Amino acid sequence: MNRIGISIKPNDARACALLCELQGWLIERQCTVYVDHKLESCMGCPSGCERLPVSEMAEKVELMIVLGGDGTLLHAARDFIGSDTPILGINLGRLGFLTDTPVGNMFNVVENILAGNLKTKRHFSLDAEVWRGEERLAGGCAMNDVVLERRGKMIGFEMYIHDRFVFKMRGDGLILATPAGSTAYALSAGGPILHPAVDAISVVPVCPHTLSNRPVVIPADEQIELRLVESSEGGALLNLDGIELLQLEQGDRVVVRKNGSISLVYLPDRHYYEVLRTKLKWAGQVEAT
């Protein structure tokens, strides 16, 4: 393994400094390094690497390293959906559920990976399409969540699974989250945490107008359709991993289904429940016997 791609959080001086350091360290080890071509702020790094769009790296590199938070990793990961190339996230963000390798361990972890010692976990994504009548307006994919949300006043929508009516809701919106995304926005909205090994999608209402709407977990292979049946002049938005895909009008349909996966690298001694306990600051200790 010696062809390494690197992307970092844009306009971040600390990430840029680490990129330069990591790049030089890899070149000393005879690695071929490809750096995201958009990183103009890091042009001062030592030469010896090739600039390349991240969208072209999946077919070029054997390891992708992302310096930043979960948002930076999600942005880069969308170009690796369906690829077997492992992605290592170095955490420069806050919680870092996906980028859980600390900066202080970066060189030790990368050295182990170059030696072939790595532990990976695959995470599936969601594909979303917007339809207006028989016309497909837009499509995209999300690693964390697909979110239907109001732009102005409350919206009303219906949810169907395989063309079977499930519920109608009025409120601020709805979150459809993968297991990886269950610890992000969905968790803040009161959704359940899904273990990464669970092949399921969590459906989480956002501020429903009735007390009866509750989160539900469904099999990941279910095809979900959301129909916007009520909206104010502002309409509604469809966001994929926090990025706006399209403004919706009353009558639009959103079809969501399971999509391809990516491969993330984790520390060999990583323990999922310990990560949850630490990142979410759960209280309590094991009582001494």
Automatic annotation (TrEMBL):
A GO molecular function held by the record: ATP binding
Domain of life: Bacteria
Cell location: Cytoplasm
Catalytic residues (positions): D70
Single biological process term from Gene Ontology: NADP+ biosynthetic process
InterPro entries, A to Z: ATP-NAD_kinase_N (IPR017438), ATP-NAD_kinase_PpnK-typ_C (IPR017437), NAD/diacylglycerol_kinase_sf (IPR016064), NADK (IPR002504)
Primary site of residence: cytoplasm
Gene Ontology cellular component annotations, sorted alphabetically: cytoplasm
UniProtKB keywords: ATP-binding, Cytoplasm, Kinase, NAD, NADP, Nucleotide-binding, Transferase
Cofactor: a divalent metal cation
EC numbers, comma separated: 2.7.1.23
Reactions catalysed: NAD(+) + ATP = ADP + NADP(+) + H(+)
Residue sites binding NAD(+) per the record: D70, G71, H75, N144, D145, R170, D172, A180, T183, A184, Y185, A186, L187, S188
SUPFAM superfamilies: NAD kinase/diacylglycerol kinase-like
Family classification: Belongs to the NAD kinase family.
Role this protein plays: Involved in the regulation of the intracellular balance of NAD and NADP, and is a key enzyme in the biosynthesis of NADP. Catalyzes specifically the phosphorylation on 2'-hydroxyl of the adenosine moiety of NAD to yield NADP.
Name of the protein in its database record: NAD kinase
Encoding gene per record: nadK
